[in-house]
Amino acid sequence: MNKAFTLIELLVVIAVVGIILGISTLYFPKMISQIHVNKTKDRIVTMLETAMQNSITKGYENAPESPEYKLYGLSFDNSTSPLVVKSCTFEGNSPDNLTMNKCESYTLPDDLNVTYGNTPVVFNKRGISTDLTTITLENSFGYNKRITVAGARINVK
């Protein structure tokens, strides 16, 4: 009695493996794109949380010397392609006239569509953002994450 696989059994196994590989390659680009969205979302949330903490611990308002205000926040630079997120200090003599200094940049992946407000997200000394800001990250497959900054809260959906 021979103990071996027949040709038909080998062909069936190869066909099944081929079908599984074919199906998995259809989902692979979608999975990689979702990873880009989640990784970028995590990075932006970390930058926002760091800016909030820096405003609380290192920032100041109404200082007796110039600059009177030194706060921390994020700005989006849409003059470049791909989009760049900048984590900066904001300094000036009034809260309405702050300039960006000492920025760290993070370049977003090319395959993401990003929508955001036109103004920077700046946290005051108490860690509160005065403006409601929504940042939406979306890939070409329609998978999206929304980051909302409202007051001292950073929400992700």
UniProtKB/TrEMBL annotation:
Keyword Mitochondrion in annotation: no
Organism field: Flexistipes sinusarabici (strain ATCC 49648 / DSM 4947 / MAS 10)
Pfam families: N_methyl
UniProt keyword annotations, A-Z: Membrane, Transmembrane, Transmembrane helix
NCBIfam families given in the database record: IV_pilin_GFxxxE (TIGR02532)
Protein name: Prepilin-type N-terminal cleavage/methylation domain-containing protein
InterPro entries noted in UniProt: N_methyl_site (IPR012902), Pilin-like (IPR045584)
Gene3D superfamilies tied to this protein: Glycoprotein, Type 4 Pilin (3.30.700.10)
